[in-house]
Amino acid sequence: MEQKWIGTQIVLNHITNDSLHRNDYLKKKLAAAKEFLDLDALIICSDLNKKNLDLVREICRDFKIKTYLWYPVLADVPAFKIEQEQAVETFDGLHGYGKNGSWDKLGEGEEDFLFLCPNDEEYIRRIFDHYQNKIIESGFDGVFLDRIRFPSPSNGFETFFSCFCGYCQNKFHSTYSEDLENYRYQAKAVFEKLKTMDISYLRTCQSLSDMIIQGNLEKFYDFREQNIFQVVKIFADKAKQMGKLVGVDLFAPSLASLVSQDYRLLAKICDWIKPMIYGHTSGPAGLPLELYCFMRAILNMNPALDEGQFIQEISRILGVDLPNQLNDLLKHGVSEKIVCCEMQRIKELDLAENVKIYLGLEAVQIPGVCNITAKILKKYLESVIEADVKGMVLSWDLLKIPDENLKIVGDFLSKRQY
Ligand SMILES: [Zn+2]
Asked: 117: CA distance to ligand 1 center in Å?
């Protein structure tokens, strides 16, 4: 069997000079990753100064590990703090967060998940300038673009129907010679329909987006996908011009259309894609939280809908069993078989051959967010083998991945190789 490409991510924010140098903190962790996994790449999110970035790069070079600048493009950007009123505008005039089904921890942590509009030229220009400088300053081998999407279910249901800002109105009009205002009414109509949606209708849905993107809204959603593609292209093309590799962080295929990430479009402009197939993360992008928020919102709007039957239909659409009760989804997560199901969906897209798919595999232990035990990891790895992936990115922070987990992955892969 061909040797798999292995990358991992690391968050080096608020790390003092002292702790970076003390006990060779980083060096020891990377040495373990190199020993157990023969690590190929490290994707680095950091607020370190140039001197310390150089140090990180040197350590990686000594271990023959490629370095990537992990850069969030539309939310939680390093260039400036995004205020709520700057974020995307929903059909009903909210900004950034909706009300229905939104995650109760939104805005509490260090990440706000407030998404800027991809058409907002002024902010995008500021972010792009910062990004260019950061590429030069870091001297890394590649860039890894994150937060390249519209808000997800965990931001609240209303945000599915964004953005209606002035930039979007102008762009929509110049693209389609049609008024974006008309789509506010379409969005309201979908809300009304969801309130009375019954189980026989759900049985006709083949994807989550079948419930949301109905009728004329298809054009609105095409527009959103184009908007994301265009902004990512600007960032990706610049990096390529500068001789860098480009990786992108995408939602699992089942969720991607809800946030307007089109794998086929995005595959054309990057070297590799990391699908975040997170079955145990109770945070944005994690299937448990996103599915929970999605279903919670619909059940709130439509109390006549039977929770158990609804979960069953979602489970049919995803192709894996889900817990019978919504609250258990956050507790127990989604079956590890989801890796195989979602990877199959990617295969069916028949993406260009030159783009690689490196599975985003959870490996962290972060209390209250994601706790990948040896047992879970082994089940995941069975599914990884079945899916026959070319490589993977152990997600999403090496400093939170126990050495035991690194070793399990390494042992598993080497056993399969010989
Ligand atoms: Zn907009």
From this structure: 4
